[in-house]
Specification:
Length: 141
Amino acid sequence: MNCIFCDIVSKTSPASIIYEDDTCLAFLDIYPVNEGHAIVIPKHHCSDLQECPPQTAQHLIAVVQKINAAIMKAAGCNGVINEIRNGLEADQEIMHFNVHAVPRKLNDGFGWFFPPGYRERPIEREKLDRLAEAVRQNLKA
Ligand SMILES: [Zn+2]
């Protein structure tokens, strides 16, 4: 399988590694949104969060907490966006589960962008309740 993140784990591709343990690896993004933009990945290949063993995901989030604190200090900012994309439809670019940690400063030009006017179009309660029931049924499955 051709996977750039597995290549970084095996050290066959270069990366500016900032953290490593038996389970996960963190490195700086070569295309940073902001300075200090980091990526945290499990060492064992899994395509997305759904495929990641829960214990690995739990550990990875604990590492993300440490990385967030460290990059805020290094980048001199007080905010970080963590992003997980699951699947092509969610714009996941590398199909190896990853968590982005992007340092944020006020007016840095980056952020979540929502469709225009979405705040003016609340969904009807009945429709929302039907969807909630469908999700609850899937949680039981
Ligand atoms: Zn991989």
